[in-house]
Hints:
Layout: H1 2-18, H2 21-51, H3 55-91, H4 95-122, H5 124-130, H6 138-150, H7 152-167, H8 171-195, H9 200-223, H10 240-272, H11 276-312, H12 316-343, H13 345-350, H14 357-373, H15 377-389, H16 393-406, H17 408-419, H18 421-457, H19 464-467
Amino acid sequence: MNQERSEAEQRQFRRMTETPVPRLVSALAVPTILSMLITTFYNMVDTFFVAKLGTSAAGAVGIVFAMMALIQAVGFMIGVGCGSSVSRALGRQDREAADRFGSSAFLMSLVFGLTLTVIGLVFNSGLMRLLGATPTILPYARDYAKYIFAGTVLMCSSFVLNNILRAEGKAVLSMVGLGVGGLLNIGLDPLFIFTFGLGIAGAALATLISQAVSFGILLYFFIAKKSITRLSFGSISRRWSDYLEILKIGSSSFCRQGLAGISTVALNVTAGGYGDAAVAAMSIVGRVFHFLLSALIGFGQGFQPVAGYNYGAKRFDRVREAFRFTVKTGTVFLTCLGALGFWFAPEVISLFQSDDPAVIEIGATAFRAQCLALPLQSTIVLSNMLFQSVGKAFQALFISATRQGIYFLPLILILPCFFGLGGVEYTQPISDLLAFSSCVPFLVFFFRELRQREKQLIPLPDTSELKA
């Protein structure tokens, strides 16, 4: 059994360090793109069906989405930190370390997830008000949130299992786990909301069930030994340094997701001053752009194990090639999407809320503004993923903090004071432009350092005979 496992690991190692980079990244990216699109699409389906219940219900989705971003921040922190550690360990061909990081991260996800479930269920109403729920939105947000809180432990644990599989280059297994749950959610939404008459709570219940199914499928892959990494009680680390490494590398994901939640709260509170239509419009725009960016994130998730494996194996030339290929492809793709989105902005918003002209007008303006900055997302997102994959915690943390923290939060407070609702609509694209500018110096320095390390790996010619 150990010999078979060793042979499988060697085959995977050769695949990750010898396959031509464009082909390898593309092969790993196709399943992750599909899983991201499915996962994000069912979030949009929630918005689509819930919006049929009214403007306040649509606004509630935006409120709860901010809370889900905070929960996901914890899951991503543990999952991405674990995935980076696992891929680099496998690149060094250190199987024991990969098992240790995987098992420890899974335990952490259970503990953190259970803690968040208890807090959320106990303080549901207060949290919804804190997240920006108006009196008319609060009842919908509270009903939606209670099921989301109940599934928090499943959500966090699934992030860890999913990231381990992706870190190993097992992107197809990851896609199956997330994809089946996502497709189930899409089917259950109209059934629970309308057929069973559960309203907005039905959408949340559908999400809870789909998360349970995804978790079960992902866990099965580990129990059935379809993965390289083995989860076991014996492999759980007793060293604090291992847990700190996971949290340190994953802190950028926590920062990015956490700030996404905080920025959404700030956006909801600011937009709330302009009425429920503004909250609903910005909620719809946020969901649509999350869907558009999911393809880029999926593509980046195909890039990450390639970067981590080859960085661990000291194949720095392949790390550089993989980043350039992924950024160029992503930029071209997002430019095309941005052009289409700018042209059809009113039609996109009206798909969700066709009977409220105010929502369409506000949403279309914000949508077009963000389409202008959409191509910049390729460099922003993939720079963060690059630094996560190679264990550069500070760089990853800073870049993740720029877009929706360092720049967005001050701007969402300042711009509306001078430009009113226009300040709300244009805050995000301005933040994107500033975040892009911040990535460039870090990338220049990193690749310069990488070239220096490459030179150190090249043996110097033997000149002893010439001297003689």
